[in-house]
Amino acid sequence: MSSVRLAVLQMRGNDSRDGNVDRAIAEIERAADDGAKIICLQELFTGPYPCQAEDHRVFSWAESVPGPTTGRLAEVAARRSVVIVAPLFERRAPGLYHNTAAVLDADGSLAGIYRKMHIPDDPLFYEKFYFTPGDLGFRVIPTRYAKLGIGICWDQWYPEAARLFSLAGADILLYPTAIGWIHEEKEEYGTAQHDAWQTMMRSHAIANGIWLGAPNRVGIEDSLEFWGGSFIVSPRGEIVSRAGHDDEAIVTADCDLALSDEVRTHWPFFRDRRIDAYGDLTRRWLN
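Above: the chain sequence. Below: its structure as tokens.
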């Protein structure tokens, strides 16, 4: 398939797991009605963003993969013949938890999972308390419609990750996200923070000549205002579709997968890489 319609869902989170999954399924149905074949949900979509404090009770939000939520989504994926990317709080084993994206293929099967590799520890983003770093690397997940390279939120700041997904043959990069403003910082830093987020992912699309989609949360949850702004970028770095900062939205674009070859032959960044000279990238520091 040379062209595929991608949808990224921008939604609020609340304290009802079943309610969040019900609303997500309703939005998936709407996206499918509009012709979307690959549909990506936001980071940790089944609940509120859980990492604003270190609270052991939050582990009760976690679930197995496969598990109850992937089971419900698999039925929808098969019935609508769509690929669904579902970011979840995964309980892998007693005391072992991950921030995970499960990919349900268009026949309802589990095409693969990605476990978040880069785990932040910032004010109100205390993820190291909850999540073990991923151990699956930067694998591409083949689906009926495209090969997907999926990072999660903090992963999006690392060009190495985007490059490795691209080198593994990804057709589309997806970065389900929960990013927003801390109330007391928004006035001074808010514009620059949002611009940096958007610019970083546009740079991944340009450097790798690849389509990219970024669904974000929206709405205020305690001390964080999630800024929405979900968007889809072409291999040239053009923002072809995006949402606003305040409302839930379905962001869609028709992704011509053949465009990557055209862009990479005109901007031959892949061709001109000096792979013989990059060994030091595996070192922490050079001095």
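The radius of gyration is 18 Å.
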